[in-house]
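User: Before I run my own analysis I want an independent prediction to cross-check against. Here's the chain; please return only the structure tokens and, at the end, one sentence I can use as a sanity check.
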Amino acid sequence: MMPRVAFCLIAILGWWAVGCAPAWRGDIAALQIDPKVADTHSVQRSGAILYVERPAVIDNDADRDFGPVAARFAEEMQIRIGEYLCARGLFARCITEPLLEGYRLAGTVVVDNFRPARGGLALLLGGALLPPLLGLIWALPVGLGKCQIYLDAALHSPAGGVVWQGRLSFGSGDGACSGPESVGVGLGRSLEAVVENIGFVVARYESEHGAPSGVASARAQEKTAPGAEAHRQVLAVFDVEDVARRLKTDERVQLSAFLAAAVAQTGKFSVIPREQLRSRLQEEKQAGYRECFDSACQIELGKAVAAQKTLATQILEVGGECVVAASLYDLLSETASAAVTVKSGCEAKALLDAVPQVAERIAAQAK
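Assistant: Structure tokens:
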């Protein structure tokens, strides 16, 4: 009697889950910015407008299951990418209509091995009523769906040339395309991983070629510190050296990231992404990443990444009081062109509060 009842329950639940529960239709939930992750990425802001093109979609799946949702998905991608990049402050405005002057982000979405989700948790519950192994094999890929999706994107300058390109992988495996929320989480993470690099290349482009029309005139009206340069200098900000040994490793890493962001926000420098510095250092050392604190190492590495200046920062402790000391080195002359010290408490919060002062004073002294 019981096996017959269980079979009926499975049949009813499976019929409802697969046949009646809605499948994902290609929509993407609004992307959320994770403050903890965002604080580790220094974003350099441009006053320009970004036009986000609707991406082309290539369905490489043999069954062409993605076809029915491709148009909706491309439209949602166009909207969500623009919303996120502007919410992170990379551009002043992000639009979905063609623009003669401004940046343009174009791309192609490639979809492999797509299986739409149907039934979700209800189907998993139905699968649990079957013998364990058979139930999981049947219910997991059908209930949660499965996909492998990536976006090959390219950022075009106002002059038309490509200034940045990369691959954003935001859907892979079971559950990655189970619904708007899961797709949105994956897309948001992939975008956050590249915002620092995009900001850097845009800042460098505008430093070398000037801001797009309309942005330059707006910036000319902004108040700048006396003696501020017309073009931002390319700066490599190295990890903070905790000579006082007051911080945990993760606290020091976050403090270093905050320093890079604070320096970039002064508008005086184009800050090289930290990942680029670490990648180059790995190449130089080959044995793996090692911290680079001495001036000779920093000058050599700064030149390797085409920086004009480097910033070395230390936390020192004397008589129970801490000092954050920063030195700005000019790579052409290989000498210190500016130096600041800011007194602080030795706890992590006090040191964090001292960082904006360090950034502002260094920017004020920079020549």
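Sanity check: The radius of gyration is 26 Å.
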